[in-house]
Amino acid sequence: MNLSTQEKNQLLNRLAEELLAQTSYILEENQKDYQQAKKQASSQIMLDRLLLTEERLQAIAEGVKQVADLQDPIGQVIQGYTNKDGLKIVQKRVSLGVVAMIFESRPNVSVDAFCLTFKTNNAIILRGGRDALHSNKALVTVIRDSLKKSSISIDAVQLLEDPSHDLAQELMCATEYVDVLIPRGGAKLIQTVKEKAKVPVIETGVGNVHIYVDKDADLDMAAAIIMNAKTQRPSVCNAAESLLIHEEIVDSFIPLLEKTLANQQKVMFRADKKAHQIFQESELATEEDFSREYLDYMMSVAVVDSVDEAIKWINHYSSHHSEAIITNNLQAAEKFQDLVDSAAVYVNASTRFTDGYIFGLGAEIGISTQKIHARGPMGLQALTSSKYYINGTGQIRK
User: Fold this and answer.
1) TM spans, by residue (predicted)?
2) CB neighbours of residue 372 within 10 Å
3) What are the backbone dihedrals phi and psi of residue 64, each rounded to the nearest 5 degrees, phi first?
4) Where are the beta strands (DSSP E) in the chain?
5) Which of 27, 256, 262, 297 has its CA at a distance of 20 to 30 angstroms from the CA of residue 156?
6) Do the strands 157-159 and 180-184 form a parallel or antiparallel pair, or are they unpaired?
7) Inter-residue contact 296 to 282 (CB < 8 Å)
8) E strand or H helix at 172, and its extent?
9) Following CA atoms 147, 150, 151, 152 in sequence, which dihedral angle do they give, to the nearest 10 degrees?
10) Strand positions, DSSP E, 236-349
11) What is the C-alpha to C-alpha distance for residues 187 and 295, in angstroms, rounded to an integer?
């Protein structure tokens, strides 16, 4: 695609309006998926991932408008200079081309992914999960109708309506047609894509997210942050899954945490031996528990003797998504942020803020846990590459 910024923004604003105008249709189709999932006895948390409501659809539409308001990165000059041969060299942002996305459950992803790829002059191929097929078809229908009304090719977005694994594997190997593949889902999906894809992959994050409560923490603040990070929406990748507690405050903090959570939501703790002895109710953790993304009201707990041990622990068990330290010790906070090897590292705040919308990027296409090209919430710039433009006056290399 080679559309002007004005053309892209007009389409996105039209799409936001169409999503709201088609609320009844979209929610009706979403209910087909939701009721089918209930028949299959899906957990309440998985049902929450799948569900669209008027409020959530309004938030999706607002995200579309926010992307329209963002600066268009295409054509931005990254750097420009004249080399010793007199060549004028300019590096500009350009589109990636065709982006494919394989994702699970959450139907809002189809709109988020389209908006970001469209704004960056990319086309997108979507392959959602079987459980959200009706929802994704409805949302993509609204998108394609908006494109048609704007006289833009409807193939700027395509949905693979066959959710079979064979077709997904074919997409992973479609090097002639796809420039980059982004998986967004659980550990099994991401691992499968990493192992089988021939198309270049941007790995998005499984979220084994840690919170470390330091010996110099405000314990009431720590309990409130953990409650938010664990229980506000446990089915998302920025929800906290693992808790580390300094040994000097563990005896006083665990009872406070249990009391705080008792007023909100029961959480099952999988604790190491020392923490297990203090909890009124917990299970002994296995080695597997410390690496696990629960996506549920469950959490692993371990006791450490220093900020250094906490950093070492996190760098070993983490999925390198988001981590937080709760402390009033500036030196410990700075060390933690410098040495923890994750995409987002917090001091005295909930990890639930790791989100493209919250970071001001508009909708996000995913949260990258890689170190190459893109890391953390992936907004517009993460969906661009660059190209060098070189202008000379007849120079030849000797």
Assistant:
1) none
2) 8
3) -60, -45
4) 77-82, 88-95, 98-103, 123-127, 157-159, 180-184, 209-213, 240-246, 268-271, 283-284, 298-304, 322-326, 344-347, 367-368, 376-377, 384-391
5) 27
6) unpaired
7) no
8) helix 165-172
9) -40
10) 240-246, 268-271, 283-284, 298-304, 322-326, 344-347
11) 11
Q: Reduced to 3 states, what is the DSSP secondary structure of residue 155?
A: helix
What distance in Å separates the CA atoms of residue 198 and residue 178, rounded to the nearest whole number?
10
- Which position has the token pair 């660059």? 386
Total residues found in the chain within this entry:
398
| Euclidean distance between CA atoms 183 and 345, whole angstroms | 23
Q: What is the dihedral of CA 4, 68, 106, 260, to 10 degrees?
A: 150
CB count within 10 Å of CB 268 equals 12
Please name the residue that has the structure tokens 């992307």. 67
Tell me the CB-side half-sphere exposure of residue 141, using CA atoms within 13 A. Answer: 12
**Beta bridge pairs of residue 386:** 93
Quick: pLDDT tens for 81-120.
999 999 999 999 999 999 999 998 789 899 999 999 999 9
**Distance of alpha carbon 272 from alpha carbon 279, whole angstroms:** 11
Tracing tokens 């942050």 back to the chain, one arrives at 225
- In this predicted model, what pLDDT tens digit does every residue of 312-360 receive, in sequence order? 999 999 999 999 999 999 999 999 999 999 999 999 999 999 998 888 7
Average pLDDT (298-309) is 98
- Cα–Cα distance measured from residue 288 to residue 296, given in angstroms and rounded to the nearest whole number: 16
- What does 177-223 look like in DSSP terms, one character per residue? T-SEEEEES-HHHHHHHHHH--S-B-PBPP--EEEEE-TTS-HHHHH
Q: Residue 41: how many CB atoms within 10 A of its CB?
A: 7
How many CA atoms lie less than 13 Å away from 204 in the CB half-sphere?
A: 26
